[in-house]
Amino acid sequence: MTDINKKFLVGVYDDDDVVLSAVGKLKNSGVKIYEVYSPFAIHGMDIAIGHPRTRIGIAAFCFGCTGFLCALLLTTWTMGIDWPMVIGGKDPISLPNYVPVMFELTVLFTAFGMTISFFITNGLGPTVKPLLFDPRCTDNKFVMAIDLSKNKLSEAEIASIVKASGAEEVSIKQL
Amino acid sequence: MHVTSPVRTPLVTGGKTYADVTEDICKQVEGKPTKEWKVAFGISLAVLAYGTACLFWTWWEGLGVWGLNKTVGWAWDITNFVWWVGIGHAGTLISAILLLFRQKWRTSINRAAEAMTIFAVICAASFILMHMGRPWLAHWALPLPNTFGSLWVNFNSPLVWDVFAISTYFSVSCLFWYVGLVPDLATIRDRAQNKVSKYIYGTLAMGWNGSSKTWARYEYISLILAGLSTPLVLSVHTIVSFDFATSVIPGWHTTIFPPYFVAGAIFSGFAMVQNLMLVTRVVYKLEDYITFEHIEMMNTIITLTGSIVGVAYLTEFFIAWYSGVEYESYAFINRATGPYWWAYWAMMTCNVISPQLFWSRKIRRSITWTFFLSVVVNIGMWFERFVIIVTSLHRDYIPSSWAMFYPTMFDIGDYIFSFGLFFTLFFLFSKYLPVINMAEVKAVIRTSSEKLPKKISGVSKADRLASPAYKKDAE
Description:
The complex is a heterodimer. By secondary structure, chain A is α+β, with helices and mostly antiparallel strands. Chain A is built from five helices and four strands. In chain A, 47% of the residues lie in helices and 13% in strands. In chain A, strands 2-3-1-4 form a four-stranded antiparallel β-sheet. By secondary structure, chain B is an all-alpha fold. Chain B is built from 19 helices and no strands. Chain B has helices spanning 18-30, 35-61, 76-87, 89-100, 110-132, 158-191, 195-205, 212-245, 257-283, 292-322, 326-337, 341-353, 361-364, 367-394, 409-432, 438-444, 454-457, 461-466, 468-474. The two termini of chain B are 25 Å apart. In chain B, 49% of the residues are buried. Chains A and B meet through helix 1, strand 2, helix 2, helix 3 and helix 4 of A and helix 1, helix 6, helix 7, helix 8 and helix 16 of B.
């Protein structure tokens, strides 16, 4: 983790609607939010915080193209070049017959490539220790973390804004 | 942020809070195995042991122990294979196609249905290995460099397409399932009391913490995976049907096969989901999550796909007559009136007539009827594959080669093996992994349900505040 030895202000919310509107309120008050942790996806949260749009779709498209080209190479090279064979009176390279294999490999490469990229970009892995500001964020609470070093406002000011936005608890956590 | 119109019945009843969802689902994973579970698991292990013994003998002696003969070279093996693959279609349909259609009722059943898919495909694959007779040469179906030239596999063959389709389907289904499990595994990790389960679930949860960035990407890749799985699931049974449709056997050589097989697959898959979920819901007390609405929705899909299958049967028959090809006509008349007439009429009754009973709302919402008719549908779908495969083969081109197929105890024993395997895997899943997707269910329950009037949540505010789960939550 790059955020070691940093002071975070942690606000715990009870409701997804409240935390989403709180993000807007905090941003209007000039507070920079580090991240919000929730037990399920809150639509629009990443946009509200201001995270850039994910580019994983582009990666998926590239993996798909790789899969398609690999399949094209595999089928045409084995059937038409390495050991050409006439089967059922068809040309050694008869592309319509290879469509199923090309489709399957395209899907296979896209799915695995994209999911592996997903794990890598999120820093997820079997030995990764989760960065949890409050373990209840995987159960029923919505946890907002604010990096105090990146905010101009004082700790007390931020705490009062967070409280006013509907947080149930406010605490300070040192990482 | 899920908004439901007040006129709609809620997807999850009982006025559950987020904490209730976690508690209700995790309870099953965290507790010690119950007596019922141990008994059921023991029975399925015994069945698996018997089946394994039969399978061992099948491989030891060779396929001669089956009832196959020179004329009928495919019978129970391929029937069982197609049957299991068909069952394996419901999970992806529920999680992928219903996700694309924004059908939020899928959230309560998708986890178990996807697990069922994976286990059904494993069972299907076991029949592929069995019917090879020499399973140690199974890798010959893959395009691997070899010492014969290299002599490559034939990419013009539907059987090779099948190898690619089934293995892709299996691996992508596992992936989709696992990605969906990660947030729930993190929930279990954060609640785990002992070190061993914290370590195991922690490793599987991959350090998930539910940050908004992760969730945004998660939603994004779920959508793409659903978009990929939708054509994938349709392609799998299409290609399975090509195994038959591209041959020149009367009764197989028809262009109707792909849509007809896909509809049949969804039909039998939903029936199997019903069977499993109706039991799981009672044993795990999940009546608030898998409500009568869910049961009714699935029964509606069963009626729809059952009707498509019925239309396909009639179309097939009509075209066989209308084509004027006497061999084709004979194949169908022989199905209905020949020595296997009972299998044909079993198929017709179970698949075409029985699902029509679901037009009655009372039957559609009845647990007993749903369970019974789902079993009937699966019996019917097994007979459909048996009818297609055996009745088309047993009348060979030359009448002197005509033959009958009679199963031996090894045909039956190998089928029993697949049941043992399926239920063993399903029981392990239902004990050690959350049977309901907690994260997705939390996203569809009404937020702050304790604030809702009783009319909608089904529970008054006073009852809600008095419930032990709420108190625990408040503490």
